[in-house]
Amino acid sequence: MTTPSPPNPTPTATTVRGVTDRLLTGLQARLARGIDRETKARLTRNDPPGDPGLWLVLRLEDLHGSTGPALSEKDYIAAATSVTAAAQLWSRTDIPHVRSTAQRVTVLGHVAARVVLDRPAAEDDLARALRCHTLDELLPRLRPLLRDAARLDFSLLAADLYTWQQPDGPHRVTQQWATAFAWAKNLAHRASAPRS
Fold it and tell me: What are the DSSP calls for the chain, one per residue?
């Protein structure tokens, strides 16, 4: 049984993923050495992810990229908001950012399925998140869902949050999360079932 693959991301979603990965990998490394605590503290405050002051703190100019055309103002705002929202969730949950690989899948749907194994009520948390229509509704619903997660690919989450802000984005993202959740839950059920 192979892992279901998400739809091909847009170039901007790919950029969002790369910028978020570099940002959080760097922050985790610096925090491990006792450096850059003020950035994490700033992320834990209740500033909205659309705050340009936070974008300056996080130095999100990399979202424009050095190759290809620059993002439109609308795309930059959606991209910067996505990176910031993912970084805020990372800082507020203390879940390590671990990039997903074929051997270690750490996308939201899979992580939620693992959390549900230990805390079945987390399935209700996921259902509430899947019913959201706006980013402002969604972000506070993700924190309780992720409460017991061991790790998460926050860069993929940031790309999903960018897609969420596009036309039909909530539907596409929730469908992707629900599919990954069902697949991982089924796989865990098969693994725990007694063999006859």
Answer: -PPPPPPPPPHHHHHHHHHHHHHHHHHHHHHHTT--HHHHHHHHS---TT-HHHHHHHTGGGGG-SSSPPPPHHHHHHHHHHHHHHHHHHHHHTPPB----SSS---HHHHHHHHHHH-TTHHHHHHHHHT--SHHHHHHHHHHHHTT-S-B-HHHHHHHHHHHTSTTHHHHHHHHHHHHHHHHHHHHHHHHSPP-
The pLDDT tens digits of the residues spanning 119-169 come to 999 999 999 999 999 999 999 999 999 989 999 999 999 999 999 999 999
44 CB-contact burial (10 Å; exposed 0-12 / middle 13-18 / buried 19+): exposed
Q: Which residues of 57-77 are buried (b: 16+ CB within 10 A; e: fewer)?
A: bbebeebeeeeeeebeeebbe
Task: Residue 180: name the closest of 103, 91, 113 by CA.
Answer: 113
Chain segment 76-125, per-residue pLDDT in tens: 999 999 999 999 999 999 899 998 887 778 889 999 999 999 999 999 99
Separation CA 196–CA 186 (nearest Å): 18
pTM of the model: 0.90
